[in-house]
Amino acid sequence: MAALLWEKLPQSIAKDHRVDVRRESYNEMKIFRRKWERAAKNDECWIDPYPVNSSRH
Questions:
Q1: Which superkingdom heads the taxonomic lineage of this protein's source (predicted)?
Q2: Is the pTM of this model over 0.70?
Q3: 11-49 b/e with 16+ CB inside 10 Å = b?
């Protein structure tokens, strides 16, 4: 039913929410990355299995 309503809305009223979803996802990823980096820095036992300066390719 919702799909039918969406199809009947004029193009000027219908909003594509994909941009909003991408923006929110990007912001959540930034928050996660900050938390991960903080946790990894504070955890003395954690070792990065893929260090940036690794000689393995």
A1: Eukaryota
A2: no
A3: eeeeeeeeeeeeeeeeeeeeeeeeeeeeeeeeeeeeeee
């299995």: which residue's tokens?
A: 49
Mean pLDDT for the stretch of residues 30-57: 85
**55 is written with which tokens?**
């000689």
**Which residue is listed with tokens 């039913």?**
1
**String of DSSP letters for the chain:** -HHHHHHHS-TTT---THHHHHHHHHHHHHHHHHHHHHHHHH-TT---SS-TT-S--
Q: Could you tell me the CA-to-CA distances from 30 to 25, 27, 46, 54 in Å, in that order? A: 9, 5, 21, 24
